[in-house]
Queue: 4 jobs
Job 1
Amino acid sequence: MRWRFLSFVVMIAACGDAGGIGAPTSTSARPVLRDVRATDEPQRQVVDFEAFALGAIDGQFDWQSFGGEGAAPGRSCAVYDHVIAEPNGSSHREAAFGRRSLRISNAVTSGCYGDQTMSSRSADVAGQAGAVSLSRDGQVNFALPGSVLRNHFDAEWVVASAVPSAQQSGLEVVVSPARGDDHRMSWLRIGDQPDGLALTFAERSDAAQPGAFEMTTIARGLDRRLPHRIRLSMNFVDGPSNDVVRVYVDGELRHVGTSWETYYAADPNGRANFNGNPPAVNRLMFRTGSDSHRGVPGDPAPLTRGHGFYFDQVRVASYAVPVRVADCRDDGWQSLRGDDGRTFKNQGDCVSQLARSRVR
């Protein structure tokens, strides 16, 4: 309860802060948690929502949504159309969705961040050396007990339109690596356009303008009648302006960019929060609101209420990857993984992966 209360205090402060944009299959009684450190996959949590109760998301299996429908009142800037729901229509009743999914629309928006929907946390946190998992006052640790700082964050989810037969005008949801408050390290918007679903990636790569977005449309015309699998892969490299972020759509690499570390290192508002160090991440933020300026809600799309997007098969993982050849030597490769989470066969395999991961 103390952790929850303090998290709320941090969120309320974020909602009122002026300045730049926000910095960032299971039928059992619990979602699937596969501990597979000894196999070719990292320890990961894949959430299919089948064990979730319908309605409010907040508090279920480490998911957080202070502003989601049905959450306790008085802890959010708005009440968002974010709920656990039963997908409508036979087109979505397949392995990727099952009986229950997370449904989100932007019928209601706000300029706040910490009250939006946050996924459950990975066992460890991810970030470069010095990445911060504590709140500014040091009272809240957003990491799970026993978490270790790793240098890679990997997230994946399946998304589909709740109205596959037609465009939902104005529909958009932003998904970001986060830690549970209003601070993020990347940004991927999913929108519904006349020709199908579209994905837009935002990075902050210009040290001269660290508060500015560099926006790239990385996919468009995606068939809204079908579910699409999105993967976000982040390598955090010590030092400035060198993180590598890859975005995959249905298994295809669509974009290679960078993180928001430049914002936290060079922008006055970013530095004020972390003294030049970026936040660590261990979960995903699903957000409906504007990113033009903190406190600006953006244009809601009220006709999307009760519809929007379905999200399912959500996975987050934090693990260690090699960043220099020395990391692979002296049996170091045995405790590392490739960007895709696979274990290495030997030192040479580790070195080869390092060479591939450096390609941008």
Note: Confidence is low (pLDDT under 50) at residues 1-43.
Job 2
Amino acid sequence: MKISLSDHFTYKKLLLFTLPSIAMMIFTSIYGVVDGYFVSNFVGKTPFAAVNIIYPFIMILDSIGFMFGTGGSALIARFMGEGDHKRAKSVFSLIVYVSFGLGVILSALGIIFIRPIASLLGAEGELLEDAVTYGRIILMANPAFILQMEFQSFMITAEKPQLGFFVTVGAGVTNMVLDALFVAVLPFGLQGAATATALSQVVGGFVPLIYFLLPNKSLLKLGKTKFDGKALLRTCTNGSSELMSQISMSLVSMLYNAQLLKYAGENGVAAYGVLMYVCMIFLAIFIGYSVGTAPVVSFHFGAQNHKELKSLLRKSSVIIIISSVGMVILSECLATPLSLIYVGYDPELLSLTSRAFSIFSFSYLFSGFAIYFSGFFTSLNDGLTSAFISFLRTLVFQIAAVLILPLILGIDGIWLSIVIGEFFAVIVGLVFIFVKKKKYNY
């Protein structure tokens, strides 16, 4: 079924259009999940904890790809809705070139300073050495991963979500196969896991780059451009919430690791790592849906189609409610089986991880709406509102909860803090939805 941004979206059409985006996000999250499985089961608990210690820092550097992708897609789709396709292609090219250059610079700085940063995050001894080893290899592919993250949004805007899906699946399969080869078959250990992930990110970033450089049948193509400071600023403003969300989530993860080292040692960090791997897949569904609907919302906003905006918001709310309840039920049922897959070799760690799952699962009741509300305002080119929701969601609500609740509930307070943070983020999002309703006519 051919689906265009200008179409009227029924439930079926909305799900079909966003499905490739959801699948792309799921396969992207598989990088960490697969690495975690092989490192935990074939290399050891300490290297597994090291990966979880350094990964939030790497995600901070990668987050500009998400910012340029979501913010740029909203702007480009709006230009398309206004009928200005020439400027849409020019801005698309500018964003890709600028983000790749920034990726090279950030990679170099990350590789240089990764040791003191890992030490600052609490790593020492063998944990520190493993974190540095894994981080340096991953950072070599950072420019490619930045491209991959933004192309996931641009593929949808170009009305080629299926192609984006196949590229992401190819990258994910590359990661899984190479992880099995380098870690389970060949004795490359932690270096093998990092190399597998880095190579798969090269596939995910450079294949779509080549596609857009060559003649293609999509709505976008890389070519000559000119510097457009206003467009770049609007892109960064539009995507600031996604940048804020990614950075703050990484900072919160660092704080969680520090708290867990304090309350439960390496076992706590390892248990949190398992939770985050599973959480990445579950949240990828919400993020993928938000990213998938964003160009549609931006297009109809640019075309002043207020009736369709109202329809999209209403239908999305129904889809998220159903998905959220389903995720909680599924997570509760899979708590012990998933824990066994990762840490079945350690009874104490297994018990801790299963307990964490049973509490953490309830966060899915709220996280879908928290993510969608922020993404919805990005789509409306209201990056400041979107960023404010993201800021409160992570840097205020979750940090306050993770610092206060453990004093009352011990380690259970750490698992519960995410639930509390997401709940208050939804309240704030609903307030903005009602306050801004007349302004945007949705």
Note: The chain has one domain: 11-440.
Job 3
Amino acid sequence: MGAFGQVSRSFLASRLTLSAGLRADGNSYSTEMANPLKQLSPRVSASYSLSERWALNANAGMYYQLPSYTVLGYRDQQGTLVNKANGATYINGNHLVGGVEYKAGNSAKITVEGFYKTYNNYPFSIKDSVSLANQGADFGVIGNTPVIPTSKGRSYGVELLAQQKITKGFYGILSATYVRSEFTDKDNEYKPSAWDNRFLLSLTAGKNFKRGWVAGIRFRWVGGAPYTPTDTTASLIQAAWDVNNQGILDISQLNSRRLTSFNQLDIRVDKLWYFKKWTLNLYLDIQNLLNYKAQQAPRLTPKQDANGNKITYVDGNNVTRYVANNIPNTAGIVLPTIGLIVEF
């Protein structure tokens, strides 16, 4: 269930615009989330025009979001909703944003904004002693797990955004962001989250030409994501590997290493024919034109002999281990597509 209301009004000859809203959410999953008054989300925003081109903007708000359905629906062998018993509840976020806006005519504007956000009640894995925000994509690969809503997080940074609405056939959006994203670990210390890329750059632009030709590009550059190294010593114990069939992460070094930065250039060219009652669109789309190979966390596997058998040895403690084989892990390929669209 949910309810939302908002009111806006202008003051000072429309130079100052204020807006305030309130939302409440609830559901019947558990007693922790049944009362909407516990999930009240107020928010307020203000915009003040310094001149015809310059304006100051600010907004603050409190938000509530359900954990993923896989978290809510996780059951043990007896069919018990484990995370319901563990007190799973709405994730709380508090946002504070402020900045300046410049209008370069009627079709273009530039904004610079700073932001600070905090998060509470984030799911924390009991099994791994890691916030799900610090696991990133690994959470989806490994599967679900018992969690408790105890992790906290914060993100802060600044963003530059330049927008050009379509003018004389040209349009474009450029954004450049510096961001820090951190969540607490088992010792309640802030560690980089899976989204702590630090620097992000994105450019999308296009041009409409005569005779139905359209061309566009998209370029993305993202700073290296953090990752947790594998505990080689624990992973390659024969008994452990035969059960897990994968490396065990070294949680004591949670997200302490970083991948290299990532970039991708995509282009697209369209040719349109306009008929009386229908349109024909032929296009060529090429993703990752520069064939960039994105670095991913290296994969640890046991080394194999010429016959494909895992090589073992016995260490000084009389423990049978596999010989380590670290494999570089990259992804990325040029992906061209030719398409035909018919619209009636």
Note: The chain is about 10% helix and 55% strand.
Job 4
Amino acid sequence: MHRLRITGLVQAAHRARRTLSRPLTGAERDTLVNRVQQTITQVDAILRLHDAKVSHLPTPSRRAYAFLAQLHPAKIGVGQHVEAAEPRGGPDTESVTFRGLRAFLDRVLDDTARLIHERQLKPAATHGVIRKTAHRLDQSIARDGLRPEHLKPQTRELVAWFRYFADEQAFARYAQAVERTQGVLAALPGREQTWRSPLLVHYRPTRTMYRWSVVARGTRIMLPTPMIAFDGSTVRELGRQMVSGERTKTQITAAMLAEPYQEVAAELESLVGDVEQTRGMTHDLAEVFDRVNRHYFQGAMARPRLMWSRTLTHRTFGHFNFVRNTVMISATLDRPDVPTLVIDHVMHHELLHKKLGLRASAGRHRAHTPEFRALERSFEGYEEADHFLKRMVR
């Protein structure tokens, strides 16, 4: 039987886990229980309708269902992980989005790139649109009493983009970067066989190093916003890889870790506020970091951004993002049956990445070097923790 996809199941599990990471009032607890019951009931009904089983769901949905099922009051006491607290008003965490904002940005950036290509851009007019949009977003956020954590992650990034380029000098830098990039990419050998002109270059919020697609009005090329800091040589190397399909990231990664890129990235983050939330249902990543930092790094490690994964992963239990200086720990480990030793081991592993960095070798970056492996085994209880994680994978 084909995989059965149920939209919203993974998001429901994520919302429930985030809700349980803080103290709840009785009313909030009852609301959560009702939501979980409704979700489980709806999923079971859909499975029966299609004569399917939970095993027919995609892996992320299957894990989400299992997580929600263990919260079902028929299986565990609804009072677990609950404390008294003052009522909390306002929308749920990471629940708010601005409908149509992403599509609007696409249109603005398409028009900007096309006008730059045709040498007809009127910077004041385009900048005026961006500035007015940023102002309206700020008005809406203030009117509804929204905090950064209320916004969905992608929405926070879009709001930060409009706030950043509402500054006239920043927009002038954006236009210069698009013009420079169009010129460099248009001169690449083999470009004509891959891309249709004009090249609609976007510097915008995106989670990938680059992405491009042929559209009705040309070829849309999406690059992360901080890449406006790239010089022509780096853009040329990036374009060469896009055209050839080659994935040699050494030069590009080095440029993303360099100060010009990081300065833009830091300013974008500062414009939407700090939304780091370290407390989970069972473990608090801030406490985990402090404990590991004190014991293995003499307290000298500067704290990176700490976050739980948005999905329940099965094989990847942690990740360190060098560009964003972020340690992400799998939400799968945020359970009472996962010993402190195990989550400390994963944090130690990721902090070693931060300490040792990447080593370039044969045009590629290596993270798990012999030095890394030796230091990893210095963790007290390494064998026990590693064995526990391997059992979870199986």
Note: The beta strands are 199-204, 211-215, 218-224, 305-308, 318-321, 326-329, 359-361, 364-366.
